[in-house]
Amino acid sequence: MRIVTAATLAMMASPVFADQVADLIAGTIKECRECDLHGANFKKADLSGVDLTGANLTGATFHRAKLKGAILIGVNATGANFNLTDLTLAQLANGDFSRAMFYGAQMSGADLSAANLSAARMQTARLTSAKLPGAVLDQGLMRTMVANNADFRNASVQETNLTGAHLGRSLFDGAVIRNAGLVKAEASKASFINATISITDFYGADLRGAKVTGATLTGNRFTTAIVSGVDFDGATMSGNFMADGRVQN
Questions:
Q1: How far, in Å, CA of 182 to CA of 223, rounded?
Q2: How many CA atoms lie within 13 A of 194 on its CB side?
């Protein structure tokens, strides 16, 4: 009589890693919750609407893949490659995307609430109307990112490079912005209500009509920034280099 070991039964009960990847790419399965897909190659695959909740995606490649409306809540995607990926309306809340790459990714309307995007590379990514409340963007490279009408409330934006980013009408209420670079950023009518902003460079930034009521601004540079319509009287300020060249005490 053939003896079936417990290990054999376990292998028979769960799909092999390669089979999971192949089935997702083929569209045979649309759900792979908590699957171990680390290092998997989904380059140019159409994974629209797939549910990968809680999956291990560390080091996985989604270069030019379609993840429109996908569910990646709570995933571990450390170091993953999402360059030029379509993540429109994707659900990425509470995921770990530290050191991940999103160069040129389409992320409009995506939900990144409380996501860890520390040291992420998001140059030229499009996050129009994206949701990032409570997200960690520390040490991120986000030059020329398009994030108009995005929600960054209570986010951590420390040592983050947002040079030339488009942030018009975005919300930074309650955010902590420290030692960040918003040089020549377009942030007209953005809201920084009750934010804590320190040692941050707004050189040449467009801040027309921005709201800073209740914000604390310390040691920032606003040299040559466009600040018409900004009511700095509603903020607590010290040691800032103002747009007109004067330095506060």
A1: 12
A2: 6
pTM of the model: 0.91
Average pLDDT, rounded, for the chain:
94
Per residue, what are the HEC states of 87-119? CCCCECCCCECCCCECCCCECCCCECCCCECCC
Cα separation values, 130 from 73, 90, 106, 147, Å: 15, 10, 10, 7
Please tell me the least confidently modeled range out of 76-85, 108-117, 162-171, 229-238: 229-238
Report how far Cα 236 is from the mean position of its chain's Cα atoms. Answer: 28
- Per the DSSP assignment, residues forming a β-bridge with 96 are 76, 116
Q: H-type helices in the chain, by residue range?
A: 6-13, 17-26
Asked whether the beta carbons of 42 and 62 are under 8 A apart, the reply is: yes
Q: Which of 87, 84, 90 is nearest to 123 (CA)?
A: 84
- Percent of the chain exceeding pLDDT 90 equals 89
Residues β-bridged to residue 86: 66, 106
196 CA to centre of own chain: 20
Burial (0-12, 13-18, 19+ Cβ within 10 Å), 15:
middle
pLDDT band (50, 70, 90) for residue 16: low
CA–CA distance from 160 to each of 88, 138, 208 (Å)? 23, 5, 22
